[in-house]
Amino acid sequence: MVMQIDRRSMILGGAWGIGALALPAGQALAAELIGARGFTHAVASGEPGADSMLLWTRYVPASDAESVRLDVEIAIDPDFARTVGGGTVRTGGYRDWTAKVTIDGLQPGTTYWYRFVAPDGSKSPVGRTRTLPQGDVPRFGLGVFSCSNLPYGWFNAYAHAAARDNLDLWLHVGDYIYEYGNASVRPGQGIVGRTLMPDTEILAIADYRLRYATYRADPDLQRLHQMAPMVALWDDHESANDSWEGGAQNHQADKEGDWNTRRAAAMQVYREWMPVSDEPWKAYDIGTLATLYRTESRLLARTRPADITAAASAPDADAALKAFHDGVWQDPSATMLGSTQESWLAHAFRANARTTTWQMVGMGTIIGRTVMPANVSDWLRPDANAKLVQRYRNSVRMAQNGLPMWMDRWDGYPAARSRLLRSAQAADSDLIMLAGDSHNAWAYGLVEDGQPAGVEFAGQAVTSGGMEGDLRGDPTAVARGFVAANPELKWANTHQRGYMMIDISRDRVTGEWLFLDTIKARSTRIASTHRMSVERGRRVFSA
User: Fold this and answer.
1) Which PROSITE patterns match (predicted)?
2) What share of the chain has pLDDT > 70, as a percent?
3) Which among 300, 311, 284 is positioned nearest to 238, based on CA atoms?
4) Residue-wise burial string across 2-30, b where 16 or more C-beta atoms lie within 10 A, e elsewhere
């Protein structure tokens, strides 16, 4: 990669916009990212099929060309002695010089190596990918990630997973980036050298592009993308915290402009920079072993989360919370997915449960029911301010009135949750939910109408802080307290970072939570692990 860092090349090369040139922090890194020429961010693959794969790269020409054509080479060996296909793709500044091409005519369950070739003959780094299998499949391995807040730590989870040889596919269930600026980092929590670009919260297309360029410059994330295909879905921070169809908690229209404009920018740039198709949701068959579903639950049809603030702080809070419980909270029109996607998923369950053993749903937010334990005040850090203490007390009172901790998760949408789980039961599905969002690790046995509906493996964050930021009690006691207070919750870890490995076989699915020793320094040392399994036809975790 050749760097030509002058003002003109910054504007032409990256199509960032002039606002990106005057950054209060990280000037040198910003200039390097914006002025980079050639293949700037390695390669990636995604949207796997049995005979196809989407391939991604970014190439900025040294000339002032408005667009360029890239060739693609695919081989069954890393030295490209046996090329078996390829293609072409055109890109330009209009899409931030990112390029995506879908290659057909591949063989099922086959490992391929690929690279892009520029007009000047230069070649991209080599990527490895693997098509989905067909027919009987004895085993398949998923690496599951979520919540990668760059300033808070190194992407050691990505590095550890990329070095493994027993994982076939990555699933990223959201919060791949965060929208906040550097000023949002808690004092003493940021890592030297992990500076966000741009410095401020991202709002416009140029902002989102530079933020993705910053993340994708990370060598461990690049390596992850190079080693295997990824199925990715967005959660909220790819746009703004607690987003829904008509707005977000972290969007103030009076200061930050029209929400639909920001939402459109976030969606456009996500689709530019990620190895994903433009389809809002999709199913992927892993032979007869499983069907994996990519869902969308944030920007297209999700209704606004119910606001419980007034009820929790009312003079007669118990009466207000009971009314909230019986009224607003149970609204059947509240939806996470929207009626079109709900219908698609229900029909897919019915069709695919006949042909594939496991129905595995990637979801941004957790579906398991969770209330706050009554003794949470015993675990709060000694220096907790009055506002934090009151927030936890409100959550305890909510629990006493049958209400969940978070209205932003699936248990804040109980009617929609019931519809999803009942559709899985009606299809006689062996349902596996795979989720992130909470930053902590959880295992749920899902129940609907008094019957098992499936299980949920909810993964911890790659770097984003968990409940340990508020709670200073013994973490094992905290976890036990949550399990005791929540019948669906079978296990929890509320203080460590890492990722999940999901091992799928015909007779069982085993989830392994891997916890890194640290995220404050670059290291792939594993501090601890935890495994849980569900057997075919049981729909509950094994004892």
Assistant:
1) TAT
2) 95
3) 300
4) eeeeeeebbbbbbbbbeebeebeebeebb
Confidence of residue 405 (pLDDT cuts 50, 70, 90): very high
The Cα–Cα gap between 349 and 68 comes to: 43
Q: What pLDDT does residue 7 have?
A: 28
Both structure tokens of 79: 């030295």
What residues have CB less than 8 Å from 297, skipping those under 6 apart? 235, 336, 337, 363, 364, 365
Name beta bridge partners: 103. 53
> How far is it, in rounded angstroms, from Cα 370 to Cα 42?
40
Residues making up the chain, counted from first to last: 543
Domain boundaries, the chain: 1-131, 293-491
The pLDDT of residue 473: 83
d(C-alpha 385, C-alpha 398), whole Å: 20
Q: How far is residue 535's CA from residue 541's CA, in Å, rounded to a whole number? A: 7
Look at the pTM and tell me if it is higher than 0.90: yes
H or E element, residue 91: strand 83-92
What whole-number distance in Å separates Cα of residue 438 and Cα of residue 459? 8
Q: What is the pLDDT of residues 62-116, one digit of tens each?
A: 988 999 999 999 999 999 999 999 999 999 999 999 999 999 999 999 999 999 9
d(CA 530, CA 513): 5
Rg (C-alpha) for the chain, rounded Å, is 23
Pairing relationship of beta strands 358-363 and 290-294 according to DSSP bridges: parallel
Q: Is the pLDDT of residue 285 over 90?
A: yes
Three-state DSSP string of 189-231: CCCCCCCCCCCCCCCCHHHHHHHHHHHHCCHHHHHHHHHCCEE
Confidence class for position 26, pLDDT limits 50, 70, 90: low
Structure tokens at 227: 């080693």
Per cent of the chain over pLDDT 90 is 90
Mean pLDDT for the chain overall = 94
- For domain 1-131, the CATH superfamily is Purple acid phosphatase-like, N-terminal (2.60.40.380)
| Eight-class DSSP state of 456 | E
Terminal C-alpha separation, the chain: 54
* Integer Cα distance of 447 and 437 in angstroms: 21
Burial classification of residue 64, based on how many CB atoms lie within 10 Å of its CB (0-12 exposed, 13-18 middle, 19 or more buried): exposed
Average pLDDT rounded to a whole number, residues 276-297: 98
Residue 503 pLDDT class (50, 70, 90 cuts): very high
pLDDT of residue 121: 97
Q: Is 325 exposed, middle or buried (0-12, 13-18, 19+ CB in 10 A)?
A: middle
* Cα–Cα distance measured from residue 393 to residue 317, given in angstroms and rounded to the nearest whole number: 11
Report yes or no: 189 and 182 within 8 Å, Cβ to Cβ: no
